[in-house]
Amino acid sequence: MGKSNKFKGFSLHIMPFSEIREYTITERVKKILSLVLGNKIVILQGRLRPEEEIRLIEDTMAMVDHIKTFKGIELAVVEPNGGEAGFFLRMRRGIAHSLTGESNSLTVIGPASIVKEIKKDPSKIEVFLG
Amino acid sequence: MLKIFSRFFGGFFRRKSNIKIGFYGPPNAGKTSLANLICKDWTGEEIGSVSEIPHETREVQFKEKVEIEHKGKKLSLKIVDTPGIATKIDYEDFLRYGLAKQEAKRRAKEATQGIIEAIKWLDDMDAVIVVLDASENPYSQVNITIIGNLLARKIPVLIAANKIDLRKADVKKIEAAFPEYDVVGISARKSTNMDEFYDALFKLTKKV
């Protein structure tokens, strides 16, 4: 299988926070990882708690250890009125808001291999989204 | 009653005499280099090997009873050096450093297990030194996740901005990213600014 073929099943999954609001930490992480393993880039409306983020990394590593083709995830939180200034304040606010699930942030979680390919050649994303 | 008494005083003496300090951060920031420098200075022995290849530390490593004396004050630490935390591990990245395929795959497998182990140890720390590469962008999601977890767990943090000997190093950028934490710029490789580091370390242990 050529590298470009890894892109074939790639799609975006928009996840409103309400979809996971009632879930436990284990269920949230399991849901996200099952989507990522299905070659989906998840866009979560909201953000995870710090302990959920670290659990996501922990479970991701367990998956990398067991699934030969899985290399891990790319994880990014996009804040409204982004930019780097006031990052710490936004992080604190984000943690506080995430306790109730309220947040204007977007959390983007995708398979590392797909994001790596996009970084190499961003024009591919237009082809596959087009 | 005796149990409560013993727990209270047991906890008190544990905190004062053998504080557990974790070294956390992304891969290749210089956690082991800094831990080695401290351990070598005060025990005569290093804690682990260092390499330019990421994920050289793939198991949590300890040094018990590291007795530090600085400006007339004494401190006894248990130093816990942890594998670098990352969200992805690709064995192909290690091939660039000249590793054979099998060796690279083994390193990747051990690295994933090391990250899991490092995360499990988080709850057990009295205080943490987050070691960041001062020449890299501090606003990475792994840094945010590590610091966010320490904040949520109320674990005291000191940020060591390592590699200030590099031309691209920018300690001010790290200070701006984490204004609520003490940030000390050092070079573990060149043993630069360690006096200021020890000042900050003693200050950190007071928060335990």
Description:
The complex is a heterodimer of chains A (130) and B (208). Chain A has 130 residues and is an alpha+beta fold. Chain A has helices at residues 25-37, 50-66, 87-98, 112-120, 123-129, and strands spanning 11-16, 40-45, 73-78, 106-111. Chain A has one domain (10-129). Helices cover 45% and strands 18% of the residues of chain A. A 4-stranded mixed β-sheet of chain A has the order 1-2-4-3. The longest helix of chain B is centred in the middle third of the chain and has 21 residues, at 101-121. Chain B has a 6-stranded mixed β-sheet with strand order 2-3-1-4-5-6, sandwiched between helices. Chain B has 208 residues and is an alpha/beta fold. Chain B is built from 7 helices and 6 strands; from the N terminus they run αβαββααβαβαβα. Chain B has helices at 2-17, 31-43, 91-95, 101-121, 141-152, 171-177, 194-206; strands at residues 19-24, 61-70, 73-81, 127-133, 157-162, 182-185. Classes of the chains: A alpha+beta (130), B alpha/beta (208). Chain A binds chain B through residues 49-51, 53-54, 57-58, 60-62, 64-65, 71-77, 84-85, 87-88, 91-92, 95, 112-113, 116, and chain B through 85-90, 108-109, 112-113, 115-116, 119-120, 122, 139, 141-142, 144-149, 151-152, 176-180.
Q: Main traits of this protein?
A:
heterodimer; A: 130 residues; four-stranded mixed sheet; 5 helices; 4 strands; 45% helix; disordered N terminus; B: alpha/beta; Rossmann fold; 6 strands; 42% helix
